[in-house]
Design a protein that fits this description.
The protein is α+β, with helices and mostly antiparallel strands. It has eight helices and twelve strands. This is 60S ribosome subunit biogenesis protein NIP7 homolog. GO terms for molecular function: RNA binding.
């Protein structure tokens, strides 16, 4: 596992700050130790420095990955967050969207969220802001990007898309064959 280049580190932190803002620092310096990001086969992994030191005893051919996969870089050097990062990003999310129970399944099938499916939304969220999508029971369901700001949502038509789907916990089932 290698360190991320300066360019890819910048891309990663910009993507994370889109969802959690300045809380990126809390991902690295945690109470249970220091964590870091490493790259292996264009995937970004979030791993404890203690575990990373233990993994140096093995060659790269002997293990598939170390840590939690946060995302993958495309050939055009864009980062797509994987759903495995949700449990780490959700507690620090600045902007949140809650989906009505009747629309949870539609979101988990990969559909965008219309205003009619919107339960609640964090105040003062700007357009194209990264959000964490929750059920009304505060269970994180996935990632999204706001199609409209919070103030625009109030006066929008019920069928207007409010949040674009990025990824969700239903991807494990839908993309089971292509993940490995």
């Amino acid at each position: 596992m290698k360190r991320l280049s300066e360019e890819r580190t910048k891309i990663l932190f910009e993507k994370l700050s889109k969802y959690i803002g300045t809380n990126v620092k809390q991902l690295i310096d945690r109470a249970d130790g220091t964590y870091c990001f490493r790259e292996h086969r264009d995937r970004v992994y979030y791993v404890s420095e203690r575990i990373l030191k233990l993994s140096e005893c093995f060659s790269q051919k002997q293990f598939a990955c170390v840590g939690t996969c946060f995302g993958k870089f495309s050939k055009t050097n864009k980062l797509k967050l994987h759903i495995t990062a949700l449990s780490f990003i959700a507690p620090y999310a600045q902007y949140k969207v809650w989906v009505k129970p009747s629309f949870e399944q539609q979101f988990l099938y990969g559909n965008h969220i219309p205003k009619s499916g919107l339960g609640r939304i964090t105040e003062n969220a700007a357009q194209y802001q990264g959000v964490v999508v929750y059920s009304m029971n505060d269970l994180p369901l996935g990632f999204g990007v706001l199609a409209r700001s919070t103030t625009d949502c109030k006066s929008a038509d019920p069928l207007t898309t409010v949040c674009f789907h990025q990824s969700d916990i239903g991807e494990y089932i839908r993309a089971e064959d292509s993940l490995f």
